[in-house]
Amino acid sequence: MISFGKRIALVLVVFLVVQLILPADFLRQNVKAHEESFYDDEDVEDLELKIISEPVTFFEIDKREGELQLLDLSNWEAVQLTSGSGANWVVDGTGTEVLQTLNSIPSVFISDIELTNDVMEGVWRVDTGSDDDFMGFVFGYQDKGHFYLFDWKQYNQTISNRTGLQGMCVKVVNTDITLSEYDFWNTAGVGEYIKTLYSNRISYKDYTDYGFI
After folding, report:
1. pLDDT tens-digit readout, 141-153
2. Is the pTM higher than 0.85?
3. Which CATH number covers residue 194?
4. Which of 84, 107, 139, 189 has the fewest CB atoms within 10 Å around its CB?
């Protein structure tokens, strides 16, 4: 469960320039002025619309070039999101890989850098076939009660009246209260504290590498 910083979405809005072709005497014959307002005669005919600009049919995001750099995970921080049996994050000798070894409460491994308009690539996997719990990412992290969460559940499971459904889910956590371990299970979210923004039913496979970008 590796966390990363902010991302910015690019929204493209396309406009078409439209020109109205009006009869030369349109204003004189069909629009009558009044002291406070004006109105159109009921017998005004439909007018032809003419597009005078070319519509946008292709768009490509600017490709930024740069050298890939391996991240040093040695100074990243393990954060336990709730009380209980904590996770055990082990960074390997190269400082470029981390392994979480325990069946623990919700926990994240927070980076020591902030990323804006950058791209992060990597590979993750589940190295056990004995459980079907969550893996995922945290991004936009501020503190234990304010962040975005992408989690991925292998199979459906209900614990303490909270149901985690098989598949991927994006949630926003926004609260000043202390959440319980099981609050993070609920795919449907928890009131105003955890809201689900998106979900699907795609499972993951054990012992399988998944690339992310």
Report:
1. 999 999 999 999 9
2. no
3. 2.60.120.200
4. 84
